[in-house]
């Protein structure tokens, strides 16, 4: 082989190295951009759920009455706002006063709970573990990072509401824009997938609200029977936090258990059993019945997605991990699984 041929071969190898390096750099850049903008995608998802809620109610009213979209959508939005205002008018003052009372008496509740735990060997071990966690510097740093949002709490809520309003008013405008990005031969398929995504999120959201209301009712009944103070506020917390799978019910149980410990350890144990039983009923009967025609999401997959997405985006990722997993499952089924099955048959 001549010297010129060796030089050309060596130059070709260097080119390949540069190409591979550029490809890896491009992939790394895309991943960094994706990580930096993933919080924004979560907010867009939250706004889409906001729009699915109003459009779902509007579709239901239109299906039952045959009225126009403008009328049913106005009824959906105005009716929802009136219902929320009515709920606040009926129980808002009670919940607000009980919440203020909990905030004022929380140090006393903590002290009473500590005294109850220190009365037994197992309780003392729990207190030692909690003191070690409290003295650790990593826990406050992790919590501050976890609860840090994209634009701040008020800014995130404002963006979610703004996106939700725009999606509610003219969803077809944004849907058509997405479809136009697809090659002409695949646009019918894209429209079908988007329709499936919209109906899937709407059904999931409806089932979730049914489960939240059921948890609120069951928790309120149980707390009233046990004679727990501030039962209404604790039941409202349990219903609202049930929107967050796995971690929400656990967070709702903490204040109830602390208040029960101030009464007696036996009451705290009964509260733990009651909350656990309600969650078993909700996850085994209420949610499957409410979402019986929806895609079943494995519970382990929800926990894994909450851990991974929560590590990337914080509290919003934990809250909206389930609908994000639902979107991914629908996309995989419609774009890969079903076409492969049709091809095989």
UniProtKB/TrEMBL annotation:
**Keyword Transcription (UniProt):** no
Q: What is its main location?
A: membrane
Top-level taxon of the source organism: Bacteria
Q: Which UniProt keywords apply?
A: Membrane, Transmembrane, Transmembrane helix
Q: Provide the transmembrane region boundaries.
A: 12-34, 40-57, 69-91, 146-169, 209-232, 252-278, 299-332
Q: Name its cellular compartments.
A: Membrane
Q: How does it sit in the membrane?
A: Multi-pass membrane protein
What family classification does the UniProt entry report for this protein?
A: Belongs to the autoinducer-2 exporter (AI-2E) (TC 2.A.86) family.
What the entry lists under PANTHER family is as follows: TRANSMEMBRANE PROTEIN (PTHR21716), TRANSPORT PROTEIN YDBI-RELATED (PTHR21716:SF62)
What is this protein called in UniProt? AI-2E family transporter
**What species was this sequence derived from?**
Autumnicola musiva
